[in-house]
Amino acid sequence: MTPGTDCGSLYAATRDRSPRRSRRGVTRLRPCSAAGVSAILDSEVREELPISTRPFTYVIDYAGNHMGNAEWDAAIEAAPPGLLHVGHDIPVLSVSGPTLAWDVSKFDPASPEQVRERMAQVREFVERMRGLGAVKVIPYIVNCILWGDHETRKGFWHFYDHWNEYAGLGLGTQPPQDPVEWQQEQRRAQQHAGGYWYTPCPNNPHFQRFLDDLGRMIARCGYHGLFMDVNTCWCFCSACQADFRRFMADRYSPEELRRRFGVKEIAEVSLRDEAPAEYAAEVDLFRAESVQRNLRSVRNAGQEVRPDFLMVANIGPMGNFDGFLHRTGSGKSVLGWARACDYIMFEEWLFPGEAAPGVISDQIMQYKLAFDLGGKAVVLDYKGGTPATSELAWAESAAFGGGGAFVNPGTAFPEARAKYDRFWTAHPDLYEGYETHAEVGVPFLYDRILLRNVAHLRQAYRLTDALARTHLLFEFLPSLADEERLARLPVVILPAVDFLRPEEDLALRKYVERGGVVVALGSMKPAEEGTTAQDGLLALQAKAERDVSGALVGRKGAGRLVLLPDPDAYLPESPFALWQLTEDEMQPEGETERRAAAAAAAGVPVPGERLVGLLRGLLGGGACCQGPGAESVRLNAFLKAEALVLHLVNYAVPLLRPQDEAVPSPAGPLRVRLPLPPGLAIAQARAYSPDEEERRVEVAVADGAAEFEWSSLKVYGAVRFTLTRG
Question: Is 535 exposed, middle or buried (0-12, 13-18, 19+ CB in 10 A)?
Answer without folding.
Answer: middle
